[in-house]
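On clarity, I found the account of how folds are encoded harder to follow than it need be. What matters is that the chain and its backbone geometry are given together, residue for residue. For the editor and my fellow referees, an illustration may be useful. For illustration, here is how one protein appears when written out as sequence plus structure tokens:

___
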Amino acid sequence: MNGNITSDYIFKAYVVNTQAYDTGERDAGAWLYFPPYAEDIQALFEKIGLPPDAMPDMYFMDDYVCKVEGLKPLLPMYGDIDELAALAQGLYDLPPHERNKLEAIQLSPIQFTSLEQFHEYPWNVDYFCLGTELRDDAALGWNWLEQQGLTEIPESCRGAIDPEPFGRYVRQKEQGIFTDKGYLTLSGDKWLHERPLPKREEKQSLKARLEQTKKKCAARETKPDKPEKHGPEL
């Protein structure tokens, strides 16, 4: 995040110098936008009279402004700026459709209720499914019919079909939820509490590499057929 642009952020915190506040200096704080650059944090510490290596017990967050529904009540008064920066960066880096899905989650009964859930969401985005074009049982019913391969229904017959019961059945079976952002369901994936390690390409075994080398050598050693002799040109 560009430290000079304050309009695009996950949340901002009013960070206060604890010692200055305890000695009666009530205006001993400043706003910090998350996620911040390292220089933003250093500039904040300098502004509120803290050293560059200030520890969490030397400051506290007196207030927050948050752009994510349901996150503000979970943000700590006494917290570590580096940990809060990591939380904000993970949410900030989400592609727009995953941020939109997060908004749908927070508008539903299955909304996140802990900081851990917000922190772990970036690698659990596939735990949820969001159909942004599905806003009621009728739309969900037509979607189900199309998935069953019933897209060739003649136009003259479509009026005889009531898609709403189909949609209601699907919603109840999937325990889906209609939100202002669309139809939200669980995918059935397992929730991961730790970020999975990136997959590394498997190295070829030594035996396979030796076999490959032998084949290449054999190909080089194969003598080409002798060319046919032709009589002298006239």
